[in-house]
Amino acid sequence: MSPSQVTVFCPGHISGYFKPVITGDPKTSGSCGGGIVINSGVTVVATRAEETTIQVLKTSRDTSQVVSDNSPVIKHLMQNLGLTASIKTFCTLPLSSGYGLSAAALLATVHAVNQLFDLGLSPEKCAMQAHQVEVAFRTGLGDVAACQGGGWVVRKGPGIMAEILRYKDDQTIHAITLSPLKTESVLSSPEMMNRITDAFPKTDPDTLIGFFACSRSFAEASGLISPDIEKVLIDCDANNIPVSMTMLGNGIFALGERAKDLLNRYGETYSLQISHTGPRIMEVLP
Ligand SMILES: Nc1ncnc2c1ncn2[C@@H]1O[C@H](COP(=O)(O)OP(=O)(O)OP(=O)(O)O)[C@@H](O)[C@H]1O
Ligand SMILES: CC(C)(CO)[C@@H](O)C(=O)[O-]
């Protein structure tokens, strides 16, 4: 019997450095770069319905509040797939803050409706559907590719079929957000894209500390660091805490337990683990 409701979780992604690769075709466009797939992301509950309805919910202290009753990217995805369903997305991290939540919401939705309607799409086909919409709407470039699996990652090429190196690590990452930053506003500026491309590191990291160093050099050269971010970076430097700016959000991510108390002085701090997996089916109701 076909299910009536499917729940899927997809991890989010903090991008540390990236280089846009735009080919004119969303399938082959995307970015190279490095980032961390995190254990907090988006849970999607997809239920059979005659019409598509979307609710974006933010959860804090066990209660969820609707923050929007639309998500243009999910609406577009459902149209591309030719399906209707009720889609509810739940997240605890803040939106528009460089946690790759649009990608997580898209990827979780495709996996949920794939199961709900027994579409038989492979994980790669699911990722391709999500990636195409994400890139076309400029809500992200490399996040869907990263979120297909776990680890801190180095994406060697653009798109979801490119080689992706995934490294396990159990150290805690701490992150704060100072204010929202719409990904699309940066990705749609040719001037910013040129500067970002020039800032891309010459070599790939193979340790987590190396990844933080690449991310930090990139952030400095990209011109994206605001004075309020700079202040926190300098404070972390003074305490020998590896740190950089969340791409693309007006936030900071730092490595290790000592970062927590320091970041707490600047805002609400999220303690994150490096995810071991990509999207996971959590519940299927008959
Ligand atoms: N949790 C979510 N559920 C459904 N749609 C979302 C969610 N997060 C983002 N979106 C969609 O993505 C669009 C772009 O959002 P935004 O650029 O703020 O994405 P983001 O992924 O939160 O940011 P970032 O990529 O910097 O983490 C939003 O207008 C919304 O349509
Ligand atoms: C463009 C981006 C920084 C937005 O989060 C990310 O998608 C990436 O690394 O390509």
From TrEMBL:
GO terms for molecular function: ATP binding; kinase activity. InterPro entries: GHMP_kinase_N_dom, Panto_kinase, PoK, Ribosomal_Su5_D2-typ_SF, Ribsml_uS5_D2-typ_fold_subgr. Residues 73-150 form the GHMP kinase N-terminal domain. Pathway: Cofactor biosynthesis; coenzyme A biosynthesis. Keywords: ATP-binding, Coenzyme A biosynthesis, Kinase, Nucleotide-binding, Transferase. One of its GO terms (biological process) is coenzyme A biosynthetic process. It catalyses: (R)-pantoate + ATP = (R)-4-phosphopantoate + ADP + H(+). Pfam families: GHMP_kinases_N (PF00288). Its EC number is 2.7.1.169. It is an enzyme of class 2 (transferase). Phosphorylates (R)-pantoate to form (R)-4-phosphopantoate in the CoA biosynthesis pathway. Belongs to the GHMP kinase family. PoK subfamily. NCBIfam families: panto_kin_Meth. This is Pantoate kinase. It comes from Methanospirillum lacunae. The lineage of its organism: Archaea, Methanobacteriati, Methanobacteriota, Stenosarchaea group, Methanomicrobia.
